[in-house]
Every structure is written in structure tokens, then in C-alpha cells.
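Journal club prep — side note

Before the paper discussion, L.F. wants everyone to see what a predicted structure for a comparable chain looks like in C-alpha cell form. Sequence:
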Amino acid sequence: METTTIEVLHDCLIRKIVSYLTFKEAAKMSILSKTWLQAWLTHPNLEFTVDYRHDMKMVDKVMERYRDRKIPIDKFELSSDSSSLEDIEKWLGIALQNGVKDCRFHGLACPLPIFIILAAKSLKELVLTRCNLRSVCLSSGVANLYLEKLSLSSIFLTEGMLQTLLTNCPLIVSFVIDSCYGLDKIELRNLQKIRSVSITKSSRKRVKIQAPTLEHFSYYQLSVEKLDIVECKNLKSLELSYVTLSGGFLEHLISGFQFLEYLVIVCLGKGSERFNILSRSLRVLKIEDCEGVGEIDTPNLESVEYIGDQIPRLKITKTSSQLKHSQIVLHCQNNLNVVWFYELRRFLSNLTSWSQVSLHFSKCHEINRKELKQHDRVALPQVNVLDVDIKSSGNCPTFIDALLWSCHPKRLNLSSTVKMIICFIDRLTYSKNSSHSNSHESKPMRSQLKEVKAYKFDWKNQPVELKSGELAIRSLTESEKVYFLLDW
């Protein structure tokens, strides 16, 4: 009788595999054999969602087994809005006694015994979401010198409660505060080893951070009176979202970070002033829906990305020789005309070559090709990959001409209707043939297109070349994605 692969796995390997599974996933595997069952019964990560009395009895039974057999617990996660304080303290006590390192509590309506948790020397990470801390006395002198990560989400906090929590966790490395209410200001100080801070929609007036060790800061806020992080000299990563900045604040901020390598700016408020990004250390820059960016002077930049619904008016003054990735994603508006394509070409000419340009159109328009020719003096940018998504159906050869006038892609990925795909195939074929012709009549924008090949993917996900005419029409379904390889 043959032995299946599942039966010859070593016990240690099975336990290792199970340790990477969730508690529920491991439970499903327990039917395979006694070894798999035993691995589940000693699973180090416990995750419980308690909704009914039956759930409480099940959790109680599991926790008592872990207590009686002294089974180590690495992670204890509890989601409940109906558990009693007595049950929570009992289960928590067992987890702490068995050396839990990661505690996560979600939706606990009864007061959470926070200082019982903080008293545990084994604890490395604490995550609290929608928990009740209001009726808990935060005056204990307990200090956890082992906790590394603290995350608070959707919790009522006063400034005193927050400061007491942080005072009791002076050596945390990572701190997350998300959508917590009751705070007028957030001050982080005397955190001796803090490396990462993320603040999301948790204070509308003042944020002040004094942390020389801070390396990563993420801030998402709809309104703020003052953001003070100038004393964080070692910052390497900065993410700002939905913040209204004025008075040259961002320029001053960036200039003070000599080691800043990663910068993300998302949806700055309408009241924000126009600003420049000047940094010799910056390596990665991501900008989304920000019209206020003026000049980008970053000689050591390795990656730049822009996402928005309007062509940015920013200028990249210096092109880094180290630039490996450059991408722009535009969700194009309906008012497409000669000016729009001219602005696109002018912006793309900031760089001699782009890694990827993604354009999303709701529909295409007829474009006056004669007017486009008046702007040929703008350098023609090269693009490695041009992604085009067109929702509507139509036959707009002048639109395709204008698109390829704005840049010369090596590969064009097209997602659209069959009719539009056929239009692209036919127009590109015509452009290639026209560029080879000696006649100057009706040439599509002096395309100089040497070769074009169109491909789709079959059911085996293998590329299949498409030809124009009836063959292509028969081979395409109602909505397709195809790609073209272009040689200029």
C-alpha cells in the first residue's frame, strides 16, 4: 500500500507548517491525521470571535486546555462585544501566564484591564480597536519596558489617557493611532527608541513630535492647526495625506531632513500654497492628486510616481542618472482636445524616457491634427509601457494619432471594446504603411512607425498575434485586453 505525501511529513515540519496557518485554517487541517490534529491542539496563535454563549464556552474550554497543559501562546486575538470582564480577565490571564507576545482586542464593550496587560514582560505587541478604556483608571505606575509595538484604533482618548499610556511604554519602537476621538492635541515625547509613527484622523488641532530616533512618519488628517515634527532629524520616510500646508512649511520641513529618502504626498488641501521639492537625499517620490507641486529638484531620485485626474504643471529640473522607475497615472476628464495632448507631451518631456504611463478615458474625441503639428517643437518623450483604458466604443483615428503624437511607446496595453481595439489595429497598421510610403498625402502625423504587432492572450494565457480585418473581429470577445509592440 502506497504512503501518501501528507503521511510522511516529519512531525516538526507539520508543526512548522501549522504555525503559519490561522487557528481556523489549522482546525481544517486537523482531520488529515493524528499528527496534524496534535499540531492544531498546540497551535501558538489563538484567534477568537465571540458572539454567543456557545462561543464563550468553546473559548473557555480551549483556554483551560492551554493552561492545564502549559502550551505556549505567541498570539492571542479576541473580537467580542458580549464577553464579560470576568471571562476576559480569565482568558487574558492564561495568555499572559503562557508567555503571549502579541495581544489584539477588538470591540470589547467592558473595561479592558489595560495595566494587567502592560505588566506582562513577555508582551511585544499590543493592538486595541474599539475598546473601552474610559472607565479604566490610568494612574498605575506599571511600566512595560518590553513592548515594541502599540496600535490604538477607534478609541476614546483624552490627552491625559494617551500620555499615561505612552509613559508606561517608554521603549516602544512603533506607534499607530487611528481615528481615535476625544483628543485636541497629540504630543509624543520621551520615547527613547521610537522609529515609526502613524497618525490618522485622530487630532484636529495640534500634533507635536520630539523624537530624534524617529525614521518613519505617516500623517493623514483632514484639518490641523499645527504640525511640528522639526526635531526629528533622522527621518527617512514621510507620508502626508489630506493636510493643508502654507507658509512654505513643506519646503522648510523637507530641507531639515538630511536623510529623507521616501516622500509621499496625497491630496493636499485646497488652501495649500504652491511648493517645490528640493532634496539631495530623496530616492522615492510619490505624488497623488496634488496640484501645488512646482519644481522637483532631486538629483539622486530613483523612483517617481504621479497619480491624478489632471496633467500636473510641475517641472523636474534635474534628471537623476539613477532614475530606474517613473510612472504617471491619469484618470482623464471628458474635455480632451489639442491643448490637453500638448500639455501631456510637454509634461512627459520632463524626462527623456518614462517607465510607464497609464491613461484612463471615459470616451475618445476627434482631434484636429493640423493644430497638433504646430506644437512639434516640444521634445517627443519615449515611454516603455503605455497603458490605455477606454470605456466607450467608437472609431476615432485622429484620437489615436494624437495619443501617439504625445509619446512614443515601445509597448501599448489596450483595454477597451472590440470596436475600439479593431480601430487601434487598423490605425496602427495604416500608420506603419504610411511611414513606409513615399507619398506625403494624409500621413498620420509623420509617425515614422516601422513595425507594429498586436497580441491577445488565449485561454492558456499565451500571447496570440492578431491581424486586422475579419480574423481579428472573429477572435475577440465583447471586451478584451490586447497589447501592441511598436518599433519606431
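L.F.'s comment for the group: Residues 51 and 158 are 30 Å apart (CA to CA). Keep this in mind when we get to the figures.
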